[in-house]
Amino acid sequence: MFSARDFETAARDRLDPVHADFVAGGARDEITVRANEEAYTRLRLLPRVLRGRAVPDLDVTLFGGRARTPVLLSPTAFHRLVDPEGELATARAAAAAGAIMIASMASTVAVGEVAAAARAAAPGETVPLWFQLYLQPDPGITEALVRRAVDAGCTALVVTVDSPVLGASERNRRNGFHDLPAGLRCENLVDLRDGERGHVRQIEMSPEFSWDHITRLREITGLPILLKGVLHPEDARLAVRHGVAGLLVSNHGGRQLDTVPATLEVLPEIVAAVAGRIPVLLDGGIRRGTDAVKALALGARAVGIGRPVMWALAADGEKGVRRLLELLREEIEDALALCGAAGLDELTPDLVRPAWSGRHFGGAGVGGAGVGGAGVGGAGVGGAVFGEAVLGGGAS
Ligand SMILES: Cc1cc2nc3c(=O)[nH]c(=O)nc-3n(C[C@H](O)[C@H](O)[C@H](O)COP(=O)(O)O)c2cc1C
């Protein structure tokens, strides 16, 4: 295997087509699924040379925890659907790579066991494990889940806020895939209430959640809270105002509201809105080290991967995920060195620019105002953001 794409192909060969569709699919026409990946193809890296830099260092510190790579494992449900060891295998691979894993609330292994597997795979090293949470209408259930995450040793909560209802995957509907097969269940949802022995609760989604629920969550836990799924800059400002510790810019890999922008497209606006007060992370469409480097250069502190982890796990279990993380690490190191950067903090917006559209040939030249506007998302919001907030009016 030489790239994340190789794992995608291998996974498709191995998986039941219904499960392969569950992993690959998105909401409705999957416009956002495609947009996430395509966004990276419309940006170019502009390297610096002869900077006399050391070998690149990929360490990143977030909320007091240290990771050896800026690539984190975004929360994905049902790992045992694609591999018998499921989340245990993923956790071991992540820990060995020094990568932060966000354990999904919809995990097919309980978070306590996921944490134990991670610890055993990296003895003497504390690789952060975070827990992804869907707020539940019954506050007692939310509290019980938080307690489980704390007991497991998770060091942050990632609250997914883009899911007031479940995204409509037409692939799943056509395939009749609505539930886990016999023998698999969401282990974090078992026995959440006294007197419910063996009962597995359903994850409940609700459009009634509001900022008050985030405030209440902060009252019951001292863990840093990140919000996953913020796309609007005004919500980013509100998040800061409500004491949120970080944002994971995400559109759920295009699995919730179809036709929302690519995450890369909104990143500069969110970064500008937050103005350095809290870290901004991003996921969606990252398939190469150069994708990661572009997002990092535009202000993300770390980037998450979802489907590639599922593909690698399906293709070759723990070994597959290890190899995937190794490949992405190599690709990022390579891109950093070729950009003349010794560390992630040397990745700056001037190293990224929109692909030349060709439309302004003979005009202001590459990087001129025309290219900045037309190259990324045309003259609308996306173009304006890249032109003004990030690339300095295209005059850089
Ligand atoms: C199979 C699958 C399951 C997912 N399950 C969850 C989940 O349980 N909770 C959540 O917040 N996001 C979930 N996501 C979204 C991911 O966390 C992430 O936002 C997305 O996959 C990133 O895009 P990428 O797949 O292009 O890397 C899931 C995504 C996939 C592909």
From TrEMBL:
It comes from the Bacteria. Coiled coil: none annotated. Its EC number is 1.-.-.-. One of its GO terms (molecular function) is oxidoreductase activity. Its cofactor is FMN. Residues 1-357 form the FMN hydroxy acid dehydrogenase domain. PROSITE patterns: FMN_HYDROXY_ACID_DH_1, FMN_HYDROXY_ACID_DH_2. Keywords: Flavoprotein, FMN, Oxidoreductase. The keyword Coiled coil does not apply. InterPro entries: Aldolase_TIM, Alpha-hydoxy_acid_DH_FMN, FMN-dep_DH, FMN_HAD, FMN_hydac_DH_AS. Belongs to the FMN-dependent alpha-hydroxy acid dehydrogenase family. This is Alpha-hydroxy acid oxidase. The lineage of its organism: Bacteria, Bacillati, Actinomycetota, Actinomycetes, Kitasatosporales.
